[in-house]
Amino acid sequence: MMTHEYKVIPAPTKGEKAKAIKGAEAKFAAAMSRLLNEMAEQGWEYIRADTLPSEERSGLTSSQTVWRTVLVFSRPVPAAPQSVAVQHEAAPDTAPVAGIGGPVVTPITPPATAEEKLTPVPGNDDRDPDRAS
User: Fold this and answer.
1) What is the average pLDDT across 47-57?
2) Which of 27, 6, 10, 7 is nearest to 67 (CA)?
3) Residue 9: which of 25, 32, 29 has the closest Cα?
4) Mind giving me the DSSP string for 103-121?
5) pLDDT confidence of residue 133
6) How far is it, in rounded angstroms, from Cα 110 to Cα 107?
7) Cα diameter, the chain
8) Do the Cβ atoms of 7 and 76 come closer than 8 Å?
9) Spatial separation of the C-alpha atoms in residues 31 and 71, rounded to whole Å
């Protein structure tokens, strides 16, 4: 079973200068492109961008809500290997469970209850009325 891990990073807030790139939009797109490519090289897949509220301190006693844009990435992580069931050979007094190649089951006899332990066996008790004298 595969599971995923997620990484959330802040989105760039301003563009990057580059040769032959002019305008604020193109510079911002270049910054986003570089960031997405760097994350992809590390095995992260871009999922989406979210704008979320963040409450921050403003002055000594007040706070304000600032909206932050974050980028969400994920990558698959293999789950921990599950233990492999070990099949044991059947002992001479056990029988395999119905089905081909199934696990071998040894029947378990439940322990005797207190009542069963105290029940006299006919012929073994002096007080048994059925016992011939």
Assistant:
1) 95
2) 10
3) 32
4) PB----PPPPPHHHHHSPP
5) 52
6) 10
7) 119
8) no
9) 13
pLDDT band at residue 109 using 50, 70 and 90 as cut-offs: low
**What are the φ/ψ torsions at residue 2 (nearest 5 degrees)?**
-95, 145
pTM to 2 decimal places: 0.55
pLDDT over threshold 70, residue 38: yes
2 pLDDT band, cuts 50/70/90, is confident
Q: What angle do CA 28, 34, 38 make, to 5 degrees?
A: 150
Q: What is the dihedral of CA 18, 22, 25, 28, to 10 degrees?
A: 10
Q: How far is it, in rounded angstroms, from Cα 67 to Cα 11?
A: 12
Question: In the structure, what pLDDT confidence band is assigned to residue 18 with cuts at 50, 70 and 90?
Answer: confident
DSSP labels for 27-48?
HHHHHHHHHHHHHHHTT-EEEE
More confident residue, 18 or 44: 44
CA distances from 69 to 14, 93, 126 (A): 12, 69, 91
